[in-house]
Amino acid sequence: MALFSKEYLTKQRRYFDMKKEASIMEDAVRSKSEFDIFLSHSYQDRDIIGDLFKVMEEEMDFKIYVDWIVDTELDRTNVTAATAQRLKERMNLCKCLLFATSENQPKSKWMPWELGYFDGMKEKVAILPIVEKENSQNRYSGQEYLGLYPYIVFQKNTEGKDRLWVHIDEMTYVELRQWLSGKLPSIH
Predict the structure, then answer these.
(1) Structural domain of residue 9, as residue ranges?
(2) Which of 89, 91, 166, 187 is the one with CA 20 to 30 A from 40?
(3) Domains in the chain, number
């Protein structure tokens, strides 16, 4: 099993072009009344997050909420209380929050707020480490509280398709779809 790496996501690149694909995705995603995943991330990682969005939507068939993809009218240069209210509304429509860690994530002012809100509301939170290179280790230096949450890894199944797993540790895990349905990780 592996963590998502920038290297892997770049290889999987679907050439996410915001201008080209925004209207197609906006209509498709906005029409969804519920999302599987609220993807909390640093906007500085938007290229990798765009790649991750496409992989998770197209190959894994998850419904993902990413603010700048779904709610394109939100102005990142003019963040207001209305922005926070929209994010709360969207989080209420999501089954879980995946907190995408990266080198940019500690600089985000919004991510800790999203994590705290969602954890208090639904308690269905997991860390989605995005590491620099394949086989890199996940580190929470300075944010050790992230170690309280399970983390996400992926592994190809027998058909060669990636599946996401929620891990408490190397021996205690459950497939993400089962976790979303209420199944708890168990020892394997």
Answers:
(1) 4-149
(2) 187
(3) 1
